[in-house]
Amino acid sequence: MKLPKLRIGNLIARIPIIQGGMGVGISLSGLASAVANEGGIGVISGTAVGFREPDFRLHYRASSIKGLKEEIRKAREYSPDGIIGLNLLSAMTNFAELAKAAVEEGIDIIFAGAGLPMRLPEVTKGTDTKAVPIVSSARAAVLICKNWDNKYSVVPDAIVVEGPLAGGHLGYSAKQLDNIDDIDVEDIALDVKKNLVPFEQKYDKHIPVVVAGGIYDGNDIARVLAKGLDGVQMATRFVATDECDADERFKMAYVNAKKEDIIYIQSPVGLVGRAIRNKFLDDVAMGIKKPIRCQYNCLKTCDPKASPYCIADALLNARQGDLDNGFAFAGANVYRIDRIVSVKELINELVESAEAALDEMAKLIESNTV
Ligand SMILES: Cc1cc2nc3c(=O)[nH]c(=O)nc-3n(C[C@H](O)[C@H](O)[C@H](O)COP(=O)(O)O)c2cc1C
């Protein structure tokens, strides 16, 4: 059975796979355009996206806008017909100006995570850019819908529901994560879907629900689709690709990671994150790192006086391959990765195995009904 397409408003992705945005500098134009060229949705990370600009440290905000426009233009050049999105963290101090710059560049979709993007429609309403919040609960999805409906007379164009197996910052408290087995992202996504019905009726539009966090292979994709959900967002697997924008050493940290290396950290962003343990994180845990002087003022939620390190610099160092002075965020399934492949190879494998799994499910249903 052919995989269904993923429709977000007038945008139609040939395959229902979104490559999750990965900061800092892990998913830029290289990865995003490769995914878009294979029929998925490629996503550029907007976090500290101006890091290649010569005056990045001196003029963080201006160089972020410049860097972002450059990445969007490159992605369009490499994938003229593909769907390209931008990922922004609601906690970023320059969220609104980056969103505005992206809309001006004609970005197809803005995905907004790490907080509730209550004001995103101020930038996207009336434009061709789709607005897609990333949430971890039905409560958050409903809050956003009610707020957007009341204030802007719009609702999201899709919703990504991110579960606790995701990489990077998580929308769950340490306490909730103590009982991680009790949290099923697909159940939460179904709950979100149910709660969206009144908004879909009011606006006479379908709001696709996409599942993120721990989706690893074709069976996972088939299971999500068979439940009536619209697609998946995957990130960890896309790191171990030739086209991922991070240094080879970052990718090899994925290939070499073992199950016991995957840990939770308390990030300066104020959220729990999932990462691959290394000496840098061990030093942080032992209190060896000292509070830093902030150069960027990049996050509303970071208190530099209390933070043992600068998360922007740590993630930038890691993406350049300097894992002595940084660390790699990763999803819970990273230990299953054993090689680096091309995006084409990965997507072909995912699509073929998901289609085979859907066929198997259809056969099973048929034999049970005969
Ligand atoms: C290295 C890394 C960096 C990430 N950075 C971001 C980010 O900047 N913004 C965001 O919304 N999500 C971020 N994520 C989450 C992903 O976009 C995605 O939703 C999630 O990791 C999906 O789970 P998976 O990695 O198990 O496929 C990151 C994930 C990874 C692995």
Describe the structure.
- The protein has 370 residues and is of the alpha/beta class.
- It has a single domain, classed as Aldolase class I (TIM Barrel), CATH 3.20.20.
- The protein has 13 helices and 13 strands.
- The protein has helices spanning 29-37, 60-78, 95-104, 121-124, 138-152, 174-178, 185-203, 218-226, 236-239, 248-256, 279-285, 311-319, 343-369; strands spanning 6-8, 11-13, 17-19, 41-45, 83-89, 109-113, 130-135, 159-162, 168-169, 209-212, 231-234, 262-266, 272-276.
- The strands form three sheets. Strands 3-11-10-8-7-6-5-4 form an eight-stranded parallel sheet.
- The two termini are 20 Å apart.
- The mean pLDDT is 95.
- Bound molecules: flavin mononucleotide (FMN).
- Flavin mononucleotide is lined by residues 20-23, 26, 45, 47, 87, 89, 113-114, 134, 162, 165-168, 212-215, 233-236, 329-331, 333.
- InterPro entries: Aldolase_TIM, NMO.
What secondary-structure arrangement, pairings included, does this model have?
Layout: E1 6-8, E2 11-13, E3 17-19, H1 29-37, E4 41-45, H2 60-78, E5 83-89, H3 95-104, E6 109-113, H4 121-124, E7 130-135, H5 138-152, E8 159-162, E9 168-169, H6 174-178, H7 185-203, E10 209-212, H8 218-226, E11 231-234, H9 236-239, H10 248-256, E12 262-266, E13 272-276, H11 279-285, H12 311-319, H13 343-369
Helix pairs in contact: 1-2, 2-3, 5-7, 8-13
This protein binds flavin mononucleotide (FMN).
